[in-house]
Design brief:
The chain is mainly α. The protein is about 50% helix and about 5% strand. The protein has one domain. It starts with 7 loop residues before the first strand and ends with a helix.
């Protein structure tokens, strides 16, 4: 029986191999859902904290356009992090709310976030707005 669950995404909390990410999300990494997750994200074998991964129900109809938009968003967010090492990525992911709140106040706080973090946060916000419009 086909279900009606739209594809979505998760933000990596801890850097590690894709199969490690699957073990955090699924009770059974051999399940059809976990294997579908691995296939959808095969292009990201070692996600860093803060990167985006696609999650979808293999028994639901997943329109190709929706998966394509999710994949484009994932690629753009992940590209914004390409120059960060795992420690920087973890710091930004862990402190996203605090850094975003501080940098939102403007010029008086310039220098609190690096160019890389500003690029990362701007890209995350832009992609989330696009995904929100899709649904």
């Amino acid at each position: 029986m086909e279900r009606n669950v739209s594809p979505g995404y998760c933000i990596v909390q801890q850097s590690g191999a894709l199969n490690f990410q699957a073990s955090l999300l699924f009770n059974n990494t051999g399940s059809e859902a976990a294997q579908y997750f691995m296939a959808l994200n095969a292009d990201t074998p070692w996600p860093k904290a803060g990167q985006m991964l696609i999650i979808a129900d293999p028994l639901s109809y997943n329109p190709p356009y929706a998966l394509q938009i999710m994949n484009q968003a994932k690629q753009q967010v992940n590209r914004a992090m390409v120059d960060m090492d795992n420690d920087e990525a973890h710091f930004l992911q862990k402190n996203y709310g605090t850094i975003d709140a501080l940098t939102s106040y403007g010029a008086g706080l310039v220098g609190l976030a690096s160019d890389a973090s500003e690029k990362y946060f701007a890209e995350i916000k832009r992609q989330m707005k696009q995904i929100e419009l899709l649904y």
